[in-house]
Amino acid sequence: MSKVRVVYYLNQFFAGVGGEDRADEAPGVREGTVGPGLALQRALGDQGEVVATVYCGDNYISEHAESALEQVLESVSKYQPDLVVAGPAFNAGRYGLACGQVCAAVQERLNVPTVTGMYPENPGVELYRSQTYIVPTGISAASMAAALGRMVPLGLKLARGERIGLPAEEGYLPRGLRFTDYVEQPAAVRAVAMLLKRLRGEAVETEWPLPQYDRVAAPPPIKDLSKATVALVSSGGVVPQGNPGRMESTFATKWLKYSLAGIDDLTGEEWLSVHGGYDTTRANEDPDRVVPLDVLREFEAQGAIGRLFDSYYVTVGSGAATTTAKRFGQEIARELTASGVDAVILTAT
Is residue 255 within 8 Å of residue 314, measured between CB atoms? Predict the structure, then answer.
Protein backbone atom coordinates (compact mmCIF):
# COMPACT_ATOMS: atom_id res chain seq x y z
CA MET A 1 0.00 0.00 0.00
CA SER A 2 1.23 3.50 -0.80
CA LYS A 3 1.60 6.17 1.85
CA VAL A 4 -1.49 6.27 4.10
CA ARG A 5 -3.58 9.42 3.77
CA VAL A 6 -4.61 10.66 7.23
CA VAL A 7 -7.18 13.28 8.20
CA TYR A 8 -6.78 14.54 11.77
CA TYR A 9 -9.70 15.72 13.95
CA LEU A 10 -9.05 18.23 16.76
CA ASN A 11 -11.11 20.49 18.98
CA GLN A 12 -10.77 24.27 18.91
CA PHE A 13 -8.08 24.32 21.60
CA PHE A 14 -5.65 21.89 20.03
CA ALA A 15 -6.33 23.37 16.59
CA GLY A 16 -5.04 26.70 17.92
CA VAL A 17 -8.31 28.54 17.43
CA GLY A 18 -8.83 29.45 21.09
CA GLY A 19 -9.71 28.19 24.54
CA GLU A 20 -13.05 27.88 26.27
CA ASP A 21 -14.07 31.25 24.87
CA ARG A 22 -14.06 29.65 21.39
CA ALA A 23 -15.79 26.40 22.31
CA ASP A 24 -18.72 27.47 20.12
CA GLU A 25 -16.48 27.49 17.02
CA ALA A 26 -18.15 25.95 13.96
CA PRO A 27 -16.35 23.18 12.04
CA GLY A 28 -13.40 24.22 9.91
CA VAL A 29 -10.57 22.62 7.97
CA ARG A 30 -6.93 23.39 7.27
CA GLU A 31 -4.51 21.76 4.87
CA GLY A 32 -1.78 19.64 6.42
CA THR A 33 -0.81 19.58 10.08
CA VAL A 34 -1.95 21.83 12.92
CA GLY A 35 -0.88 21.75 16.57
CA PRO A 36 -0.28 18.14 17.68
CA GLY A 37 -0.52 17.16 14.02
CA LEU A 38 3.23 17.75 13.88
CA ALA A 39 3.75 15.01 16.47
CA LEU A 40 1.30 12.79 14.61
CA GLN A 41 3.24 13.27 11.37
CA ARG A 42 6.50 12.42 13.12
CA ALA A 43 4.94 9.23 14.46
CA LEU A 44 3.70 8.32 10.97
CA GLY A 45 7.12 8.89 9.44
CA ASP A 46 7.26 7.93 5.78
CA GLN A 47 4.37 5.47 6.18
CA GLY A 48 1.65 8.13 6.18
CA GLU A 49 0.83 11.78 5.60
CA VAL A 50 -1.52 14.13 7.43
CA VAL A 51 -3.29 15.64 4.44
CA ALA A 52 -5.74 17.82 6.40
CA THR A 53 -6.88 18.82 9.88
CA VAL A 54 -10.59 19.15 10.60
CA TYR A 55 -11.61 20.92 13.82
CA CYS A 56 -14.71 21.98 15.73
CA GLY A 57 -15.52 23.62 19.06
CA ASP A 58 -16.48 21.19 21.80
CA ASN A 59 -19.65 23.09 22.68
CA TYR A 60 -20.64 23.49 19.05
CA ILE A 61 -20.54 19.80 18.20
CA SER A 62 -22.38 18.98 21.44
CA GLU A 63 -25.16 21.49 20.84
CA HIS A 64 -25.41 21.09 17.03
CA ALA A 65 -24.47 17.44 16.70
CA GLU A 66 -26.37 16.63 13.50
CA SER A 67 -25.35 19.67 11.46
CA ALA A 68 -21.80 19.73 12.87
CA LEU A 69 -21.19 16.10 11.95
CA GLU A 70 -22.51 16.72 8.44
CA GLN A 71 -19.96 19.52 8.01
CA VAL A 72 -17.16 17.43 9.48
CA LEU A 73 -17.98 14.47 7.24
CA GLU A 74 -18.12 16.69 4.17
CA SER A 75 -14.68 18.10 4.97
CA VAL A 76 -13.20 14.67 5.68
CA SER A 77 -14.58 13.08 2.53
CA LYS A 78 -12.99 15.75 0.28
CA TYR A 79 -9.53 14.46 1.20
CA GLN A 80 -10.34 10.77 0.57
CA PRO A 81 -8.42 9.54 3.62
CA ASP A 82 -7.38 5.98 4.35
CA LEU A 83 -7.53 6.73 8.08
CA VAL A 84 -9.04 9.31 10.42
CA VAL A 85 -7.28 10.01 13.72
CA ALA A 86 -9.10 11.96 16.45
CA GLY A 87 -7.59 13.47 19.58
CA PRO A 88 -6.32 12.11 21.86
CA ALA A 89 -8.85 13.64 24.24
CA PHE A 90 -7.25 12.44 27.50
CA ASN A 91 -9.77 13.09 30.33
CA ALA A 92 -11.59 16.00 28.65
CA GLY A 93 -15.22 14.86 28.64
CA ARG A 94 -16.65 17.03 25.88
CA TYR A 95 -13.62 16.48 23.67
CA GLY A 96 -13.80 12.73 24.21
CA LEU A 97 -17.47 12.66 23.29
CA ALA A 98 -16.73 14.70 20.15
CA CYS A 99 -13.88 12.38 19.11
CA GLY A 100 -16.17 9.39 19.62
CA GLN A 101 -18.99 10.97 17.63
CA VAL A 102 -16.71 11.87 14.74
CA CYS A 103 -15.05 8.45 14.62
CA ALA A 104 -18.37 6.60 14.77
CA ALA A 105 -19.87 8.77 12.02
CA VAL A 106 -16.81 8.46 9.77
CA GLN A 107 -16.81 4.67 10.02
CA GLU A 108 -20.55 4.34 9.53
CA ARG A 109 -21.04 6.94 6.79
CA LEU A 110 -17.69 7.01 4.96
CA ASN A 111 -16.49 3.46 5.68
CA VAL A 112 -13.07 4.81 6.69
CA PRO A 113 -11.24 3.26 9.68
CA THR A 114 -10.72 5.48 12.72
CA VAL A 115 -8.69 5.53 15.90
CA THR A 116 -8.76 7.86 18.88
CA GLY A 117 -7.23 8.05 22.34
CA MET A 118 -8.79 8.72 25.75
CA TYR A 119 -8.17 8.33 29.44
CA PRO A 120 -10.10 5.14 30.43
CA GLU A 121 -12.56 7.11 32.61
CA ASN A 122 -13.44 9.61 29.87
CA PRO A 123 -17.24 9.37 29.25
CA GLY A 124 -16.54 8.92 25.55
CA VAL A 125 -15.03 5.50 26.24
CA GLU A 126 -18.23 3.82 27.42
CA LEU A 127 -20.31 5.40 24.66
CA TYR A 128 -18.03 4.74 21.69
CA ARG A 129 -15.66 1.87 22.53
CA SER A 130 -17.74 -0.55 20.44
CA GLN A 131 -17.81 1.81 17.44
CA THR A 132 -14.15 2.77 17.15
CA TYR A 133 -10.73 1.81 18.45
CA ILE A 134 -9.75 3.78 21.56
CA VAL A 135 -6.16 3.73 22.81
CA PRO A 136 -5.77 4.39 26.56
CA THR A 137 -3.91 7.60 27.44
CA GLY A 138 -2.78 9.52 30.47
CA ILE A 139 -5.05 11.99 32.18
CA SER A 140 -3.57 15.09 30.53
CA ALA A 141 -1.85 16.29 27.37
CA ALA A 142 1.52 15.69 29.04
CA SER A 143 1.26 12.19 27.53
CA MET A 144 0.51 13.47 24.01
CA ALA A 145 3.59 12.08 22.27
CA ALA A 146 3.30 8.68 23.97
CA ALA A 147 -0.41 8.45 23.16
CA LEU A 148 0.10 9.27 19.47
CA GLY A 149 2.96 6.79 19.41
CA ARG A 150 0.52 4.03 20.41
CA MET A 151 -2.32 5.24 18.18
CA VAL A 152 -0.30 5.34 14.97
CA PRO A 153 0.72 1.63 14.70
CA LEU A 154 -2.87 0.57 15.32
CA GLY A 155 -4.17 3.14 12.85
CA LEU A 156 -1.77 2.02 10.13
CA LYS A 157 -2.87 -1.60 10.56
CA LEU A 158 -6.50 -0.52 10.28
CA ALA A 159 -5.79 1.53 7.16
CA ARG A 160 -4.04 -1.41 5.51
CA GLY A 161 -6.80 -3.83 6.36
CA GLU A 162 -4.55 -6.00 8.49
CA ARG A 163 -5.90 -8.31 11.16
CA ILE A 164 -6.28 -6.61 14.54
CA GLY A 165 -5.36 -8.74 17.53
CA LEU A 166 -6.64 -8.72 21.08
CA PRO A 167 -6.69 -5.46 23.09
CA ALA A 168 -3.71 -6.47 25.20
CA GLU A 169 -1.70 -7.24 22.06
CA GLU A 170 -2.57 -4.13 20.08
CA GLY A 171 -2.86 -1.62 22.93
CA TYR A 172 -6.51 -0.53 22.68
CA LEU A 173 -9.31 -0.59 25.24
CA PRO A 174 -11.58 -3.67 25.14
CA ARG A 175 -14.52 -3.01 22.84
CA GLY A 176 -17.04 -5.40 24.38
CA LEU A 177 -17.22 -7.37 21.12
CA ARG A 178 -16.85 -11.15 20.74
CA PHE A 179 -15.26 -12.86 17.75
CA THR A 180 -14.64 -16.50 16.88
CA ASP A 181 -10.97 -17.35 16.96
CA TYR A 182 -9.13 -20.63 16.47
CA VAL A 183 -6.49 -21.78 18.94
CA GLU A 184 -4.49 -25.00 19.20
CA GLN A 185 -5.70 -26.15 22.62
CA PRO A 186 -9.37 -26.96 23.37
CA ALA A 187 -11.22 -25.05 26.07
CA ALA A 188 -10.93 -27.81 28.70
CA VAL A 189 -7.15 -27.87 28.43
CA ARG A 190 -6.92 -24.10 28.63
CA ALA A 191 -9.25 -23.99 31.65
CA VAL A 192 -7.17 -26.58 33.54
CA ALA A 193 -4.01 -24.65 32.70
CA MET A 194 -5.52 -21.48 34.15
CA LEU A 195 -6.66 -23.33 37.27
CA LEU A 196 -3.17 -24.71 37.83
CA LYS A 197 -1.71 -21.22 37.48
CA ARG A 198 -4.12 -19.90 40.09
CA LEU A 199 -3.23 -22.73 42.46
CA ARG A 200 0.45 -21.82 42.05
CA GLY A 201 -0.34 -18.16 42.73
CA GLU A 202 0.62 -17.11 39.20
CA ALA A 203 -1.08 -14.35 37.21
CA VAL A 204 -4.07 -15.53 35.19
CA GLU A 205 -5.88 -13.66 32.41
CA THR A 206 -9.41 -14.89 31.85
CA GLU A 207 -10.76 -15.39 28.35
CA TRP A 208 -14.20 -14.21 29.46
CA PRO A 209 -14.02 -11.10 31.68
CA LEU A 210 -17.25 -10.45 33.53
CA PRO A 211 -18.67 -6.99 34.21
CA GLN A 212 -18.30 -5.67 37.74
CA TYR A 213 -21.39 -4.17 39.35
CA ASP A 214 -21.46 -2.09 42.50
CA ARG A 215 -23.65 -3.30 45.33
CA VAL A 216 -25.16 -0.43 47.30
CA ALA A 217 -26.69 -1.36 50.62
CA ALA A 218 -29.93 0.37 51.51
CA PRO A 219 -29.49 2.86 54.37
CA PRO A 220 -31.52 2.50 57.56
CA PRO A 221 -34.91 4.28 57.51
CA ILE A 222 -35.23 7.77 58.96
CA LYS A 223 -36.93 7.47 62.32
CA ASP A 224 -38.58 10.89 62.33
CA LEU A 225 -38.98 12.82 59.06
CA SER A 226 -40.44 15.75 60.97
CA LYS A 227 -36.93 16.46 62.22
CA ALA A 228 -35.05 15.59 59.03
CA THR A 229 -33.27 17.95 56.63
CA VAL A 230 -34.25 16.96 53.09
CA ALA A 231 -32.38 17.98 49.92
CA LEU A 232 -33.52 18.07 46.30
CA VAL A 233 -31.28 16.56 43.60
CA SER A 234 -32.31 16.08 39.97
CA SER A 235 -30.95 14.80 36.69
CA GLY A 236 -33.81 16.56 34.89
CA GLY A 237 -31.77 19.58 33.83
CA VAL A 238 -33.91 22.29 35.49
CA VAL A 239 -31.81 25.46 35.74
CA PRO A 240 -32.48 29.19 35.99
CA GLN A 241 -33.55 30.95 32.79
CA GLY A 242 -30.56 31.74 30.61
CA ASN A 243 -28.71 28.67 31.86
CA PRO A 244 -26.06 30.73 33.67
CA GLY A 245 -23.99 27.66 34.55
CA ARG A 246 -23.97 26.47 30.91
CA MET A 247 -25.29 23.02 31.73
CA GLU A 248 -25.02 20.76 28.66
CA SER A 249 -28.26 19.36 27.23
CA THR A 250 -26.66 15.93 26.85
CA PHE A 251 -23.36 14.24 27.75
CA ALA A 252 -23.10 16.42 30.86
CA THR A 253 -19.60 17.07 32.15
CA LYS A 254 -20.65 18.70 35.42
CA TRP A 255 -23.32 19.20 38.06
CA LEU A 256 -24.51 22.58 39.33
CA LYS A 257 -25.87 23.92 42.61
CA TYR A 258 -28.46 26.68 42.99
CA SER A 259 -29.94 28.33 46.07
CA LEU A 260 -33.59 27.72 46.95
CA ALA A 261 -33.58 30.16 49.86
CA GLY A 262 -36.75 32.25 49.80
CA ILE A 263 -38.20 30.36 46.79
CA ASP A 264 -41.50 28.52 47.22
CA ASP A 265 -42.29 27.70 43.61
CA LEU A 266 -40.32 27.09 40.39
CA THR A 267 -42.04 29.08 37.66
CA GLY A 268 -41.57 28.83 33.91
CA GLU A 269 -40.71 32.52 33.82
CA GLU A 270 -37.61 31.97 35.96
CA TRP A 271 -36.64 28.32 35.40
CA LEU A 272 -36.42 25.88 32.49
CA SER A 273 -35.13 22.41 31.65
CA VAL A 274 -32.22 22.21 29.25
CA HIS A 275 -32.34 18.40 29.12
CA GLY A 276 -31.90 17.05 25.59
CA GLY A 277 -33.27 13.57 26.22
CA TYR A 278 -37.01 14.21 26.64
CA ASP A 279 -39.78 16.59 25.55
CA THR A 280 -39.41 19.45 28.02
CA THR A 281 -42.65 21.24 27.05
CA ARG A 282 -44.57 20.31 30.21
CA ALA A 283 -41.52 20.70 32.40
CA ASN A 284 -40.96 24.24 31.13
CA GLU A 285 -44.61 25.12 31.69
CA ASP A 286 -44.18 24.18 35.35
CA PRO A 287 -40.65 23.12 36.43
CA ASP A 288 -42.13 21.82 39.71
CA ARG A 289 -43.19 18.78 37.66
CA VAL A 290 -39.54 17.73 37.57
CA VAL A 291 -38.29 19.37 40.78
CA PRO A 292 -41.24 19.33 43.23
CA LEU A 293 -40.25 22.37 45.27
CA ASP A 294 -43.85 23.54 45.77
CA VAL A 295 -44.96 20.27 47.40
CA LEU A 296 -41.89 20.08 49.63
CA ARG A 297 -42.53 23.62 50.82
CA GLU A 298 -46.03 22.48 51.79
CA PHE A 299 -44.59 19.49 53.68
CA GLU A 300 -42.16 21.84 55.39
CA ALA A 301 -44.96 24.16 56.46
CA GLN A 302 -47.04 21.24 57.72
CA GLY A 303 -44.13 19.84 59.72
CA ALA A 304 -44.05 16.62 57.68
CA ILE A 305 -40.33 17.25 57.17
CA GLY A 306 -38.00 19.23 59.38
CA ARG A 307 -36.74 21.58 56.70
CA LEU A 308 -35.80 21.72 53.03
CA PHE A 309 -32.09 22.16 52.41
CA ASP A 310 -31.33 25.58 50.95
CA SER A 311 -29.32 24.30 47.95
CA TYR A 312 -30.57 22.32 44.97
CA TYR A 313 -28.24 20.10 42.89
CA VAL A 314 -28.80 19.44 39.20
CA THR A 315 -27.25 17.69 36.23
CA VAL A 316 -28.43 16.07 32.97
CA GLY A 317 -28.60 12.31 32.67
CA SER A 318 -28.92 12.02 28.89
CA GLY A 319 -25.87 10.26 27.46
CA ALA A 320 -24.00 10.25 30.76
CA ALA A 321 -21.39 7.52 31.12
CA THR A 322 -21.62 5.34 34.20
CA THR A 323 -18.22 6.48 35.48
CA THR A 324 -19.21 10.13 35.10
CA ALA A 325 -22.56 9.64 36.84
CA LYS A 326 -20.82 7.80 39.67
CA ARG A 327 -18.40 10.69 40.14
CA PHE A 328 -21.27 13.20 40.18
CA GLY A 329 -23.06 11.17 42.85
CA GLN A 330 -19.97 10.88 45.03
CA GLU A 331 -19.18 14.59 44.82
CA ILE A 332 -22.75 15.67 45.59
CA ALA A 333 -23.06 13.13 48.39
CA ARG A 334 -19.91 14.43 50.08
CA GLU A 335 -21.31 17.97 50.10
CA LEU A 336 -24.71 16.87 51.41
CA THR A 337 -23.20 14.70 54.12
CA ALA A 338 -20.90 17.49 55.26
CA SER A 339 -23.91 19.83 55.40
CA GLY A 340 -25.86 17.54 57.70
CA VAL A 341 -28.55 16.50 55.20
CA ASP A 342 -30.54 13.48 56.38
CA ALA A 343 -32.41 12.51 53.20
CA VAL A 344 -32.40 13.21 49.47
CA ILE A 345 -35.22 13.23 46.96
CA LEU A 346 -33.67 12.41 43.58
CA THR A 347 -35.87 13.13 40.59
CA ALA A 348 -35.25 12.10 37.00
CA THR A 349 -37.41 12.51 33.90
Answer: yes
Q: Which long-range contacts (CB under 8 A, 24 or more apart) does 163-172 make?
A: 164/133, 168/205, 171/135, 171/136, 172/115, 172/133, 172/134, 172/135, 172/136
What pLDDT, in 10s, does the model give residues 28-70? 999 999 999 999 999 999 999 999 999 999 989 988 989 999 9
Of 343 and 214, the one with more pLDDT: 343
- 65/321 Cα distance (integer angstroms): 18
Q: What is the CATH number of the domain that holds 50?
A: 3.40.50.280
Confidence of residue 2 (pLDDT cuts 50, 70, 90): confident
Residue 179 has pLDDT above 90, yes or no: no
Measure the CA–CA gap between 84 and 296, rounded to whole angstroms.
52
Helix axes 144-159, 37-44, angle to 10 degrees: 50
Per-residue pLDDT at 83 exceeds 60: yes
CA distance 254 to 238: 14
The Cβ of residue 190 has, within 10 Å, a number of other Cβ atoms equal to: 13
Q: What gap in Å lies between CA 156 and CA 120, rounded to an integer?
A: 22
Q: Which amino acid is at 259?
A: S
**Helices assigned H by DSSP within the chain:** 37-44, 58-63, 65-78, 93-105, 123-128, 144-159, 167-170, 187-199, 281-285, 293-302, 322-338
Are 49 and 166 part of one and the same domain?
Answer: yes
Q: What per-residue confidence (pLDDT) applies to 254?
A: 93
> Is 90 a domain residue?
yes
> Quick one: which of 122, 46, 110, 101 has its CA closest to 83?
110
Assess if residue 87 is contained within a domain.
Answer: yes
Identify whether residues 135 and 262 lie together within a single domain: no
Residue 195 lies inside a defined structural domain of this protein: no
**Same domain, yes or no: 268 and 155:** no
Residue 182 resides in a domain: no
| Ramachandran region, residue 12 (left: φ > 0; alpha: ψ -120 to 50; beta: rest) | alpha
> Are 92 and 22 in a shared domain?
yes
The answer to whether the CB of 25 falls within 8 A of the CB of 60 is yes
The number of domains in the chain is 2
